[in-house]
Amino acid sequence: xxxxxxxxxxxxxxxxxxxxxxxxxxxxxxxxxxxxxxxxxxxxxxxxxxxxxxxxxxxxxxxxxxxxxxxxxx
Length: 74
Prior knowledge:
74 residues, mainly alpha, 2 helices, 0% strand
């Protein structure tokens, strides 16, 4: 019996397309959510008289991570 699997052509897997567009949208959304994150962080700190667990950069980063995939899935 002949083994044809050794002579089979090597199929290259497709690489993912460049994610420049995703990163561009992520950056724009991150920069857009940053002022509101600072405002809510400051108001929360003033109201509770203690620093919140998550900083404003982490909140803006989280919001950008949530919103950006929704744009690409629509």
